[in-house]
């Protein structure tokens, strides 16, 4: 019982009301590709580079859900409906394309119509494409069903800016071509991508009302397509939808995380280049989504309820404000998209980190710490995202506090603040014998107390991992008011 006796004094720092909630992290697959973990140097303050300040807020905003569907994006001077998705740490909008109106060139040709691309009838909308504004785009005709990739009927093609069909040399007209000078009897046309980044291609036979076969393709743009993807600064002005009870949100600014300094230490907010931060306000008033801190929010897959429980959702995602621990834990390196297609150890570490950062000892969403309290976190992921502190750490007042999981502390060594005792029923209190030894230590293989009855005690990360399965740990000072 040497190891058990060793912790007697330390456990007397714990109020007997503390205990443990165990929750299972269960989530359906998500749609990202696998990405390798990378280890990072933990950026703290100048005097103690391994430590960081935590906080009491989870989201740091009343908004807990942003919906994927029915968003509105600014495109070509108008608001358009779009569906959102997350790609790593970035919001991406998929805006459906449509054919905007009609024109005489889409009508049937009566007799006497010219047998060339300038005529005003006999065309169909072949498809639509997206491109980079100002860049040269080439459309080429062919026939994948032909051994020689030859077209039938000497087709003609016309390209129009945006989503509206056009007339030859009329509004929106970009270019046209016939197959007179091609060896495979197919047209090829080159034009400059319009400012909208969208074009519409019309095609038809060289001679009106005759049989024709052609397949248009492009190597310098995406053609054909039924959607335009907007991302990065293209989302400025977008309206994001809350559940039905909340007002819409408007995106006022977008910045890559590798361009914004870390507000809590040296380096960038998130240096990988895969994370974008969004400055958002409510549409009903000029009130920012993030009322404290730097007013930047990071998109994170999954949702968190008021009890701090995380769950996967096909309908919505989280915008975590810079001052909240959802964003802090993301910034510290626990980015759920690092897991790839299926939520795994990093997603669980991020969730566990939100419990740790708030000192959520009861696992019910209540914080038992003060904003700005220093902690030193690390993990036992493979490889580690935050490495364990070195024995010769520059701050000797921080000692091992707890091992954490998604439900809260799996085991505890001391409270972060002496006066903030948790009024929950869980971490089981130690039971002492007549000699002052703890007889219900969960680490003791000979304890007569069953799981759920023994005291969840740990003095270091090794014990937290070995006896309680923790993979996220922290040190803190034993603070007094």
TrEMBL record:
Stretches assigned to the ADYC domain: 233-417
Quote the protein name from its UniProt record: ADYC domain-containing protein
Query: Per its UniProt record, what InterPro entries does this chain match?
Result: ADYC
What range does the record give for the signal peptide? 1-27
Species of the source: Myxococcus virescens
What are the record keywords, sorted?
Signal
Q: What is the lineage of its organism?
A: Bacteria, Pseudomonadati, Myxococcota, Myxococcia, Myxococcales
What domain of life does the native source organism fall in? Bacteria
Q: Which Pfam families match?
A: ADYC (PF20032)
